[in-house]
Amino acid sequence: MIDEPTRQPHDLRHLTGPFDVVGDVHGCRVELDHLLRELGHSPDGGHPEGRTVVFLGDLVDRGPDTPGVLRLAMGMVEAGTALSVRGNHEEKLVRALQGRNVQVAHGLRESLDQLARETPAFRARVLEFCDSLEPHHVLDGGRLVVAHAGLPERYHGVRSPKMRALALWGQSTGEHDERGFPVRHPWAREYSGAAMVLYGHTPVEEPEWVNGTLCLDTGCVFGGRLTALRYPERELVSVPARRTWYEQARP
After folding, report:
1. Which domain holds residue 68?
2. Whole-structure pTM over 0.90, yes or no?
3. Residue 4 lies inside a defined structural domain of this protein
């Protein structure tokens, strides 16, 4: 008998959905609850049609209730009703919780202060969860790829330092836009892959399809909206932010 090859952690091609893919939450628990209700999920994350939530990373930082968002997301992932990839904010939170040297900026202070009011056991669970997250997932037989900052086709299914850096951070041009957000290399304009790529990371006013890719970060924590895409239906669902929770510092 020939042993089947071990499946890599990012390779979830056997999971075919349907999925509800959610953009950057950034500690906005009330808005996340609202969005999940709009998508038909029960308070514990279950769905009558068996839909799975996919979080695109950056669950943490900046917003008012990072512990609440993590408590919900961790419970859903443990119950098998959600998946999540790792964002650059989870990456920095892991380093901070491990006691490593990290710049406490861009909302990390809010997360650390909020988590300081939780139990040591909860903080340990948060560290284990965030550190377990993969930078990207390949889903639905390779037809769907999710990565926090997007991912060019040549890195789909690859495990490498370059893949990790692109999936977590993207490639910065060194410039900032008029809102103060870093300008990323426009990889989506050059994309010609067969897989749909869903990502977040850099807030957009409106999600716009570009060569089969879509950014779902609509800046909820900055007073925008929290947005999800129903897959495979390609239906966008958004809820408004209750308020501006975090002011983006302009360069």
Report:
1. 11-240
2. yes
3. no
